[in-house]
Design a protein that fits this description.
five-stranded antiparallel beta sheet; 21 strands; single chain; 10 helices; six-stranded mixed beta sheet
Length: about 400
């Protein structure tokens, strides 16, 4: 079947409706999750090689699609230092979201939290501090004492909180990460990767957009002590709004950063850099590379009807199939005209059909490579029809099956 145009799609993308059964991909948790690709899989001659950095490992991640645009040893396990606190924050915010705790809760500071070494918010033993203040202390100023106090409040002990961290990491697809504590203080079994931490940053941005705004704050004051956010990019690039720095002697200098320019957000992780100034400079190099040679464009909005296939044995003869979220693509600049998209729909579709039930899949390809796929779901429920409708459509399907076999 020749491709047919679908009205309303930008860039004149072409869709082919294949009446065939399709595999059901798992629905992504955030936004469309395409096949990950490195620069080596891009069409040759389109973009230059990614910057050569001194970082032991790094990754440049496109937020809209989750696609890796550049990387070096992105899956190599390394000590994450205070980048750990991104996960600490995420777990605390999840507890807030389900109503187990509130930002206004008063947390009593234990001696254990007070004694935690490293960067500090300068909490006092026995004092009650609002949970929101502790969160900001960990996010903006990287307070280890604030992180431990929150961990103890949420899970009873820091060890119990680490179990929640590891469960969350597994759910988010951070398959090369393991956490022992809430701070990032060194431990041989405490590790993560550049890619995993970028995934975590992406999840934080999407799942908690209001609280994420704290990461752009440059200063934090508590107990009369004003301390700066250690992310130097906040002072240099107005499009940077996070995310977190880290440093220990073994880990070196680390940074997960994110910037948004127009509709395009990029996330970077650099690990094992030899210097605070250098980690900012190399993170900026990755961001500049991504914005200079790639672009993000929205193909269509959430719940845009992309297909209207026939429904048998139901109260209605057809159903609109939609992707339940915005669909965007990030590609080397100038490549969108070469993108083709196909729609595959299960056949035959029989009622009853539930609203939101996946009935097909949309795939976008560039030069024969799948770069994104998204589920197609029913926009509404189609109940089963009456006995006459079932009998009539049953006959139609048998006749169609006979002729299909004959051909």
């Amino acid at each position: 079947m020749k491709p047919v145009k679908i009205l309303g799609l930008a860039l004149g993308l072409l869709f082919t409706a294949d009446n065939m059964a399709v595999e059901t991909p798992p629905p992504p948790q955030l936004v469309p999750t395409p096949v990950a690709a490195s620069p080596a899989r891009q069409p040759s001659g389109i973009i230059p090689s990614s910057p050569t950095l001194s970082a032991a490992s790094y990754v440049l991640l496109d937020d809209a699609t989750g696609r890796v645009l550049a990387e070096k040893e992105k899956d190599t396990r390394r000590e994450p230092a205070s980048l750990t606190k991104i996960m600490t924050e995420y777990v605390v915010l999840e507890s807030l979201k389900v109503g187990k705790i509130k930002l206004s809760d008063m947390v009593t500071i234990s001696e254990n939290a007070w004694r935690t070494g490293g960067s500090r918010t300068f909490l006092e033993v026995g004092k009650q501090v609002p949970l929101e203040e502790l969160l900001k202390g960990a996010v903006i100023q990287s307070g280890n004492d604030a992180s431990v106090a929150m961990a103890e409040y949420v899970a009873g002990t820091e060890g119990g909180f680490a179990e929640l961290m590891n469960h969350t990491a597994h759910r988010l697809g951070m398959h090369n990460s393991h956490f022992i504590n809430a701070t990032g203080l060194p431990h041989p079994d405490h590790y993560s990767t550049a890619y995993d931490l970028a995934l975590l940053g992406r999840a934080l941005i999407h799942d908690f957009p209001e609280e994420y705004k704290w990461h752009a704050e440059k200063w934090h004051t508590y107990n009369g002590i004003k301390q700066p956010n250690r992310n130097r990019l906040l002072w240099r690039d107005p499009t940077v709004d996070g995310i977190k720095t880290g440093h220990t002697d073994n880990a070196g200098y680390c940074l997960v950063s994110s910037a948004k320019r127009g509709d395009m957000r990029l996330i970077t992780t650099v690990m094992g850099v030899n210097g605070e100034e250098l980690r900012a400079a190399e993170s900026q190099q990755l961001l500049s590379y991504g914005y200079r040679f790639f672009e993000t464009k929205k193909l269509f909005g959430a719940n845009t009807a992309l297909s209207k296939p026939r429904v048998y044995m139901g109260t209605e003869p057809a159903v609109d199939l939609v992707v339940p979220y915005d669909v965007s693509l990030t590609l080397p600049q100038g490549q969108y005209k070469q993108v083709e998209a196909t729609i595959s729909v299960q056949h035959p579709l029989k009622a009853p059909i539930q609203a939101g039930q996946q009935l097909g899949v949309m795939r976008a390809t560039l030069n024969g490579q799948v770069i994104m796929e998204a589920p197609l779901v029913a926009d509404k429920a189609i109940p089963a029809g009456n006995l006459w409708r079932k009998m009539a459509d049953g006959v139609k399907l048998k006749v169609q099956g006979f002729f299909n076999k004959a051909s």
